[in-house]
Amino acid sequence: MANFETVEVSTDLLIVGGGFGACGAAVEAAYWAKKNGLKVTIVDKAAMDRSGAVAMGLSAINQYVGVKDGDNTVEDYVRYVRQDLMGISREDLVYNIARHVDSTVHLFEKWGLKIWTDEEGKYVHEGRWQLMINGESYKIIIAEAAKNALADAGGEVYERVFITEPLVENNKVVGALGFSTRENKFYVFKAKAVIAGMGGAVHVFRPRSVGEGLGRSWYPPFNSGSSAYFTLRAGAEMTCQEVRFIPVRFKDGYGPVGAWFLLFKSRAISAQGGEYMAVRKDELQNWAPYGLAKPIPANLRNYLGMLDMDEGLGPLYMETSEAIAKIAEQYKEDPKAFKKKMKELESEAWEDFLDMTISQAILWASQNVKPEEKHSEIAACEPYFIGSHSGASGAWVSGPEDLDTPYKWGYANMTTVDGLFAVGDASGASSHKFSSGSHAEGRIAGKAAIKYIVEKGAAPAVDMAKVEELKARILAPLDLYEAHCNETTDPEVNTNYILPRQFMFRLQKIMDEYAGGVTSAFKTSKSLLERAMELFVFLREDSEKLGARDLYELERCWENIQRMWQGEVHVRTILFREETRWPGYYFRADTPKMDEANWHCFANCKWDPATGEWEMMKRDVWNIPGV
Ligand code: SFD
Ligand code: AMP
Fold first, then answer.
1. 389 is catalytic
2. What is the per-residue pLDDT across 382-403, written as a single tens digit (0 to 9) for each?
3. Is 437 in the pocket of ligand 1 (CB under 6 A)?
4. Catalytic site residue 62?
5. Which ligand has the nearest atom to the CA of 81?
6. What is the pLDDT of residues 410-450, one digit of tens each?
7. Number of alpha helices (DSSP H) and beta strands (DSSP E) in the chain
8. Which helix (H) or strand (E) holds 193?
9. In 3D, which of 491, 485, 619, 511 has the Cα closest to residue 572?
10. Residue 560 alpha carbon to ligand 2 centre in Å
11. Whether residue 53 has its Cβ less than 6 Å from ligand 1
């Protein structure tokens, strides 16, 4: 076996991941841990200052309810999420996050984040729920607060340690395993409770950009399905694994559209000039009641544009110049004021990208796009798994303790595995939490996890013989490569191992062609999905033959195994749900309609670590009474 030192770390609470959910968990858990003499440890595969989805920054905070200003109520937010997810959401979780999210945003401001304000000092809204920010350094600010809180409570931070397996004994989590991405060190974290916050997944589906553009995607290439893998392998029940997210974005640079649609009130049109949201309004009747209420769900907005593309009416364009001209029109009488407004709008347009998707600004510059003069192409991205945005996949977690919810078996945000909590993209059916809501959810889980440790936290009984076995399995790709690399002249071609890049291409081909990716126009069917399952048998078999040339490739191997699990659970769940509920995310051509009578429910599943068997199940949707 490759020679790796084993490093054992004992802690009370272990937080795996260092993104928005994890940072929220760290801040809150550190506070309660200090009061109770407990230790909190956080582990990120990257450097927390720039890790996860917000690495490049963001230009808006997408969840702010505005309770103190009387703008909205928490119940309004519950209705909004219900509507956007076509009726399928865990309203207890959405409610819990919504009632805490404003205080999280106020903390962000206190920690130094610049939220735009108007002349009266009020927050500038992008839309009803979104606030504009100067967010290039958003992640640094949030990570700094988490690190400060941990330092104050005597906690520990591990960066560049990649978490692979959960450690579970008798359905109780006792820690996690990982390895350093810089040195030959294998980590055994022993903990009384674990919070999973390792984001969502990208590159499960073949991305639009391949070859030299591989890695340019909307979702950050480094979130690889670790949360889904970790919770599934722990034996946790999962939910909404069929609900992928496909954002519409400025094409190829993946710049955000929210500011254009909501702040600038821009239209999107086909190459023929038709505004698909208006031209195809009648189609929305087929998706009643959700298609007929406002705002029209994100997937249905996508779907109307996709119908144009299917009919060969593409490309689709964002009418940026028209939108800018309309806003500036009111200053027309005063040439000086007009010029000033145009300059202001132009700079806002560029800042929107520079704050969060710099490559889109570079693409605009390289293609001579001036948004005030010329419209810009938009397109549906490849599918991603991001339960905190407008997707919903994640673990099935216990509801808030003080709410009369039917989904309650323990502490808030605890999965069905004792002591294992999930936040952000790792926790399912509570979409539209975004950066701020993920942080708020992290705070909720951080507090609950410490309570769990105080009340029930037993010393973790880690079976070191099992750890040794897992260590050998985790490091196996290095050994396999070493044993066979001299058998061929090109190390990329070998009958005894497969390198992670080729393995990823195989996974992506299956997902793209059979599970409704870009090249199959997001359409799939029972037969296609069943064929995907047949191909998965071979893929799973070959995952045991992954080879790694170095530490980086070892990480790539495990990232792709995690992607494979995310892909498989996705295929299984679309197969299970025999209807089409989220056209615009995926379309099951053999069951093309929404079936409220049979499928107004959650599609949940579970993998049994003892037997390796999968179980699929329906769970009822509960609406908060009176909401
Ligand atoms: O508008 C391991 N999001 C937006 N939210 C907003 O509030 N405003 C916006 O402007 C947003 N936009 C946006 C957004 C996301 C993306 C990808 C883009 C644009 C391009 C959503 C939020 O970013 C998202 O909701 C939160 O970040 C979710 O938080 P969390 O904690 O669930 O995930 P994370 O922040 O990505 O962090 C993941 C962490 O896990 C680490 N990690 N660590 C150890 N071992 C492993 N194996 C690991 N695997 C991953 C990561 O390093 C990271 O620290 S808009 O354009 O849509
Ligand atoms: P985006 O940049 O697309 O992620 O959007 C940012 C926020 O605005 C998210 O909360 C979206 O759900 C929302 N949003 C984007 N476009 C629209 C639209 N056309 N109508 C309603 N909400 C939107």
1. yes
2. 999 999 999 999 999 999 999 9
3. no
4. yes
5. 2
6. 899 999 999 999 999 999 999 999 999 999 999 999 999 99
7. 17, 22
8. strand 193-196
9. 511
10. 30
11. yes
Above 90 in pLDDT, residue 2?
no
Q: Would you call 32 a catalytic residue per the annotation?
A: no
How far is residue 291's CA from residue 340's CA, in Å, rounded to a whole number? 40
**Which residue is it, tokens 């809180």?**
149
| Residues 570-586, mean pLDDT to the nearest whole number | 98
Q: Is position 556 annotated as part of the catalytic site? A: no
pLDDT tens profile 212-231 = 888 889 999 999 999 999 99
User: Do the beta carbons of residue 12 and residue 132 sit within 8 Å?
Assistant: no
Residue 550 identity (one-letter amino acid) = D
What is the rounded CA–CA span in Å between residue 220 and residue 202? 7
| Ligand 1 center to 139 CA (angstroms) | 10
**Amino acid at site 203:** H
Sign of the C-alpha dihedral, residues 274, 594, 249, 108?
A: positive
When pLDDT is cut at 50, 70 and 90, the band that residue 357 belongs to is very high
Exposure of 537 by Cβ count < 10 A (0-12 exposed, 13-18 middle, 19+ buried)?
exposed
Nearest protein Cα to ligand 2, atom 20: 295
Establish whether residue 19 lines the binding site of ligand 1, counting it when its CB lies within 6 angstroms of any ligand atom: yes
Angle CA(114)–CA(119)–CA(125) in degrees, nearest 5?
55
Greatest C-alpha distance within the chain: 80
CA–CA distance, 139 with 431 (Å, rounded to integer): 21
Quickly tell me which residue has 């821009």 as its tokens. Answer: 266
Q: Which of 52, 2, 3 is nearest to 23 (CA)?
A: 52
Residues with CB under 6 A from ligand 2: 62, 127, 130, 247, 256-258, 261-262, 295, 298, 301, 390
Residue 143: CB atoms within 10 Å: 26
Whether the ω angle into residue 289 lies within 30 degrees of 0, i.e. cis, is yes
Look-up of token digits 């490559």: 359
What's the mean per-residue pLDDT of the chain?
Answer: 97
